[in-house]
Amino acid sequence: MSPTVSPGLDRKGLAIAIGAFVIWGLMPLYWHLLKIVPALQIVAHRVLWSAVLVALWLAWSQARGWFAAILRNRRLAAMLTLAGLCIGLNWSLFIWAVNAGHVVETSLGYFINPLLSVLIGVLFLRERLNALQWTSVGIAACGVLWLTFNYGSFPWIALSLAASFGAYGLIRKLAPVDSVAGLGFENAVLLLPALALLVSQEFSGQGGFLPGASAWGWGVDLLLIFGGALTALPLIGFAYAVRRVPLSTVGLMQYISPTLSFLTGVFFFHEPFDRDRAIGFVFIWIALALFMTDSLRRARAAQAG
Predict the structure, then answer these.
(1) pLDDT digits over 53-93, tens only?
(2) pLDDT band at 151 (very low <50, low <70, confident <90, very high)
(3) Tens digit of pLDDT for each residue in 236-249?
(4) Taking phi first (over 0 means left), then psi (-120 to 50 degrees means alpha), and beta for anything else, what does residue 101 get?
(5) How confident is the model at residue 152 (pLDDT cuts 50, 70, 90)?
(6) What percentage of the chain has pLDDT greater than the value 90?
(7) Distance of CA 54 to the CA centre of its chain
(8) What is the model's pLDDT at position 169?
(9) CA atoms 39, 41, 44, 46: torsion sign
(10) Membrane-spanning regions, if any (predicted)?
(11) Burial class of residue 32 (count of CB atoms within 10 Å of its CB; 0-12, 13-18, 19+)
């Protein structure tokens, strides 16, 4: 039986949502512990162990026919396959960027993402923007252009992360499927390529998960396994929370993650954050402030009505 959606703030749902965003925001610290492992192998282990955990969750919480039910709906299966490829690309780029010293730029990607999602809604869902929303998008574009021409390089990591996650969000919005079951199918799509990569790397001597001369050690192996839990648990928690916490509140809380990533990049990894980069970020933050102001105003108007 599905839980009842609460019209107000549910303390348990709120706490779980905050926990999910905090975990996502501090993920760079975790992946940095696995810097010895090639990025693609980290992603493959992330897919493998996340798939195991989600499959166990679904076996406990739902009927065993959830996977066959999705397969019978060819359109839904195709949509979730594409979603799986998008999130796989997002995970791969994020982990590579973290371990290549680009944590601050990854945070920029997730600051940009809500604004890019607004544009995706206009282009693909025929949603309309008001003047304040268009202003937000314009200011954010100015920030990206500033970073491109004054910081000295196109922020392709940030924009690629935002685009891949934005496309993933669009597909999942249109796909009529439970959040956890959808994640389970996406993991299944990525599972065979992930297993093929891991097996080939182990047999070629480039892997280190199995015991042997090149083994990374049991500590790294445990971190790789637990990385699957860190992938699945926040998503499951998020799916739980959004049914109990108003979306306007969840929308504001989503900025916890890039804020923590940004602070981690600057103060823990000591990545450069000079005047030119700061100006670009200020443009983005102003755009987000306007965007959040508009979202709160509309949420209050909807509640009043």
Answers:
(1) 888 888 887 767 888 899 999 999 999 999 999 999 999 99
(2) low
(3) 787 777 667 765 56
(4) left
(5) low
(6) 37
(7) 17
(8) 84
(9) negative
(10) 12-33, 39-60, 76-96, 108-125, 132-148, 215-240, 252-270, 276-293
(11) middle
132 exposure class (CB count in 10 Å sphere: 0-12, 13-18, 19+): middle
Q: Which pLDDT belongs to residue 4?
A: 40
Report the distance separating Cα 256 and Cα 20, nearest Å: 10
Kindly state the tokens that stand for 58. Answer: 């679904």
Question: 119 or 31, which is more confident?
Answer: 31
Residue with the two structure tokens 């019209």: 7
DSSP, residue by residue, the chain: -PPPPPSS--HHHHHHHHHHHHHHHHHHHHHHHTTTS-HHHHHHHHHHHHHHHHHHHHHHHS-TTHHHHHHHSHHHHHHHHHHHHHHHHHHHHHHHHHHTT-HHHHHHHHHHHHHHHHHHHHHHS-----HHHHHHHHHHHHHHHHHHHHSSS--HHHHHHHHHHHHHHHHHHHS-S-HHHHHHHHHHHHHHHHHHHHHHHHHTT---SSSSTT---HHHHHHHHHHHHHHHHHHHHHHHHTTTS-HHHHHHHTTHHHHHHHHIIIIIS-----HHHHHHHHHHHHHHHHHHHHHHHHHHHHHH-
Count, residues in the chain: 305
Query: What is the identity of the amino acid at 92?
Result: S
- What spatial distance separates the first Cα and last Cα of the chain, rounded to whole Å? 31
Residue type, 163: A
The mean pLDDT of 134-147, rounded to a whole number, is: 86
Rounded to 10 degrees, the C-alpha dihedral 200/164/264/45 comes to -20
Q: Which residues, 6 or more positions from 2, have their beta carbon under 8 angstroms from its beta carbon?
A: none
Q: Which residues contact 69 (CB under 8 A, 6 or more apart)?
A: none
